[in-house]
Specification:
Blueprint (H helix, E strand, L loop, with lengths): L5 H10 L4 E4 L2 H8 L15 E6 L7 E5 H11 L4 E4 L18 H11 L14 H14 L6 E4 L6 H10 L4 E4 L1 H9 L3 H24 L6 H19 L3 E6 L2 E2 L15 E10 L2 E2 L2 E7 L4 H18 L8 H14 L9 E5 L8 E6 L11 E10 L3 E11 L4 E3 L8 E3 L2
Parallel strand pairs: 1-5, 3-4, 5-6, 11-17
Antiparallel strand pairs: 1-2, 2-3, 7-9, 8-9, 9-10, 9-11, 12-13, 12-14, 14-15, 15-16
Helix pairs in contact: 1-7, 5-6, 8-9, 10-11
Length: 416
């Protein structure tokens, strides 16, 4: 099932004067079609899987897929809306002849003949992008779009692949629609929201397990493993489809060195996420083992005030840049007048990295909308004192921002 909000996409594409989108990034292909991009997409080259999304929401989404994964696309979109091209993997379907005579080789030959394989057919080393783009051209001709304005997710395309696309389909007006795709993706479907909530819940369950285990002398890697073990237990308990997890756990006064064994007074920073069906959560908290040092308290107090100031305007109808301005101003008021940070958070979704646009940045004059899922954070890293972060994942509703975690955001002193 496609997660594209078609009416939203229609409005944004029409505003940009585009007739359609062609999405080549594997994650965007799956988002658009509801089908896996397939093993050929592991090469991270354009053409392995292509989704054609008309601006007109009444028109069907179409796809170009490798033969091996075309069945998934056809089940998602319908046979008439999918064209296929060969990849390197040889297959044969001998089920129609299993009860008859013939060797395995003979039945495989029947399968290839029944599929219309021409004489002299040879598979490419991986896949043939030229053939994929020719199939895309056939889909465009079916819609009389041979000279249309088509948007591409050019933030993914290798230069050589784009040059080949222009060579194969020279009459099409190809446009960079990367920013438009990001704006469409920023508002999540009901399914996407549920997956991100589930991912956040798994990560928080792991946090409870890790915190229960922390003791003086414990190594950073042991603390991180306790978190992973807690996540694994939550997965077993809930049956969630965990597809990955990541963590940036730091111990002690040198945050970018990770840290060794935790000692009383050390700062312990957690920044982590779980992936459910490719959708990554992102939240973080800061703790101290035993009694906190005065400078630790000072830094955390400033971050708490900045978080609270930003959270006041993390509301539908406000601008992302306002959140950044409020958080920065609060840190300046706390005496950190030279503090500068490029962004205080980002959207979340299904991508190669958990941080995706739009960002909570000074330049992001974009309206916060219901349906967005945003990670808002106030971090700082101070060699000599430690790594510090307050981060929560928020669902923007019609009138507020709902946090995904229930753990307290303030500095917590753990028993040594």
């Amino acid at each position: 099932m496609s997660d594209i909000p078609r009416r939203r996409a229609e409005r944004l594409l029409q505003q940009a004067g585009l007739d359609a989108l062609v999405l080549a990034k594997p994650e965007s292909y799956t988002w658009a079609t509801g089908a896996p991009a397939g093993v050929a997409s592991f090469f991270r080259r354009a053409g392995a899987a292509l989704a054609l999304v008309p601006a007109d929401s009444r028109q069907a989404i179409c796809a170009v897929s490798t033969e091996l994964f075309a069945g998934h696309a056809r089940r998602a979109l319908g046979d008439a809306h999918v064209l296929a091209h060969a990849d390197w993997v040889e297959t044969a379907d001998i089920r129609p002849w299993l009860d008859g005579p013939g060797s395995a080789a003979q039945l495989m030959q029947k399968s290839w003949q029944a599929g219309g394989r021409p004489a002299g057919f040879a598979r490419p080393a991986a896949f043939d992008a030229r053939r994929a783009f020719a199939q895309l051209g056939q889909l465009l001709r079916q819609r009389s779009w041979t000279q249309a304005r088509i948007g591409l997710d050019l933030d993914f395309w290798p230069v050589s692949d784009f040059a080949l696309l222009q060579e194969v389909l020279p009459q099409v007006h190809w446009c960079d629609a990367s920013a438009i795709v990001a704006r469409i993706k920023a508002v999540k479907s009901t399914r996407e929201i549920a997956l991100l909530r589930q991912a956040a819940a798994l990560a928080e369950a792991g946090m409870h397990q890790a915190l229960a285990c922390v003791r003086s002398g414990m190594h950073r890697d042991e603390i991180a493993q306790a978190w992973k073990d807690g996540v694994a237990q939550a997965v077993q308990r809930t049956g969630a489809r965990l597809t990955g997890q990541w963590e940036y756990t730091t111990v002690g006064p040198l945050p970018w060195q990770g840290g060794g064994r935790i000692a009383p007074g050390d700062v312990l920073k957690f920044d982590m996420g779980c992936l459910v069906e490719g959708y990554s959560s992102d939240s973080g908290r800061t703790f101290v083992l035993g009694r906190a040092r005065p400078r630790t308290r000072e830094i955390m107090q400033a971050l708490e005030e900045a978080f609270a100031a930003g959270l006041e305007v993390l509301r539908p109808g406000r601008l992302l840049s306002e959140v950044h301005d409020r958080a920065t101003s609060a840190l300046h008021r706390a005496g950190m007048t030279g503090f500068t940070r490029g962004h205080f958070g980002h959207s979340l979704g299904h991508d190669t990295f958990c941080e995706v646009p739009p960002f909570i940045a000074a330049q992001a004059h974009e309206v916060i909308e219901p349906g967005m899922v945003l990670a808002f954070e106030t971090p700082v890293y101070v060699d000599g004192e430690g790594g510090f972060i307050i981060e929560d994942q928020f669902l923007i509703t019609d009138d507020t921002a709902e946090p995904a975690w229930s753990l307290p955001r303030g500095l917590v002193e753990l028993p040594p």
